[in-house]
Amino acid sequence: MTGGSVIDAQGLDLVFQTNDGPVHALSDVDLTVGQGDFISFIGPSGCGKTTFLRVIADLEQPTGGAISVNGVTPHEARLNRSYGYVFQASGLYPWRNIAANVRLPLEIMGFSRAEQDERAARTLDLVGLTGFERKFPWQLSGGMQQRASIARALAFDADLLLMDEPFGALDEIVRDHLNEQLLALWAKTHKTVCFVTHSIPEAVYLSTRIVVMSPRPGRIIDVIDSDLPAERPLDIRETPEFLEIAARVREGLRAGHSYDD
Fold it and tell me: Which of 86, 146, 210, 224 is most deeply packed, by most CB within 10 A?
């Protein structure tokens, strides 16, 4: 943890009521996320990774325990615009060009047009999309669309970035490139990042800490601190240090599955 507490969850539970009966999505989750942390959440499908992100964002309401975001409730944090959210799909509006898509939250928040333009230009430059402002989403590759989605999440300068498998649908070469770019962006902006992934190499490459979760009901099996250097070329993934952390993540995932026995 590199700074003060940004997210603090204690004994967090969430049970969904469905037509087929209750679904226990999260169980007794305790986690503190520090300022400037890059936290990856990894676990099998349905383990509550995305649900936990949605609780942080006030898109789901816990049924037990407590959680704070920047010292206030998730609802208050949402009203304070304390976070940007990047979804699995870019969610860009096809009838708006890239600059207009990035400006959208700023329009909703009532920023002046001059401020909107300045912030859109700055964040598009951060993600390497200067020169594509007037293009429409369908004119961009999937990776570029996701970079535009990240720019939109950064446009109002929230300190917390929530990312739900943003690169999961991309091919491996593009994904590697965006992983490198995301690390560089994190180093420049000093944001706190909560990142959901199914990929062990991605989790280890990006993170200061990796949260390993069990199958439903989602529990935290392990929280692994990474001592990899801040500068991480892609070939760091071949080093013994990297492979050792990856092995611990894999072991945690295996141990988590034993709860099904």
Answer: 146
